[in-house]
Amino acid sequence: xxxxxxxxxxxxxxxxxxxxxxxxxxxxxxxxxxxxxxxxxxxxxxxxxxxxxxxxxxxxxxxxxxxxxxxxxxxxxxxxxxxxxxxxxxxxxxxxxxxxxxxxxxxxxxxxxxxxxxxxxxxxxxxxxxxxxxxxxxxxxxxxxxxxxxxxxxxxxxxxxxxxxxxxxxxxxxxxxxxxxxxxxxxxxxxxxxxxxxxxxxxxxxxxxxxxxxxxxxxxxxxxxxxxxxxxxxxxxxxxxxxxxx
Length: 246
Fold this sequence. Notes:
Elements: H1 2-22, H2 25-39, H3 46-57, H4 62-73, H5 76-101, E1 108-111, H6 116-125, E2 129-132, H7 140-152, E3 157-161, H8 169-178, E4 181-186, H9 190-198, E5 204-206, H10 211-217, E6 221-224, E7 230-232
Parallel strand pairs: 1-2, 2-3, 3-4, 4-5, 5-6
Antiparallel strand pairs: 6-7
């Protein structure tokens, strides 16, 4: 019963937050930030809220164009799922749980393509973001395994690097359908970039640098190939171990 109440509470917050996301971002983003502040008892979102507020005030920058591109470039259902999994679940809910349990919960867990048990245990601990360590190739079985995991865990976000040409139109349509798989591709893989943009998917770049590359390609994050290979949000949401940073 307790878990059910918590889940309903999260769902209610998600529904209320989405009301602000559905309209004009320039008008509603300040309202959304105030709403998030009101429900963020752990004050975990303070840094990111302040950075977004600064971007909204200083409009003459690539960051402003980048921020608005989430509304302009991404399919509404994909954007909504991203907000629920990466912001509400992986960030706010996790931070709240850290305060309640006086512990550190990883923002992200690296997994291979056969990781059902790892994901199940990770969710129980409070982790909702997973990065695949191996590049799926063009084999249908590999792609089917990824899609199956996404369908089994709609409350999680999955990031996966792909080799050139591994994403065809049929698989891109599957990514659009599940909504919570975010591919990472090379900045010079023009064919794949075009396909991902046409499908209005949320995707990242492998080893790119700076917001200009994001704006130019339509990507929304950068995959940093460091020792622990993790996706990096350009707004630098945190400096804790396992959290995105630039």
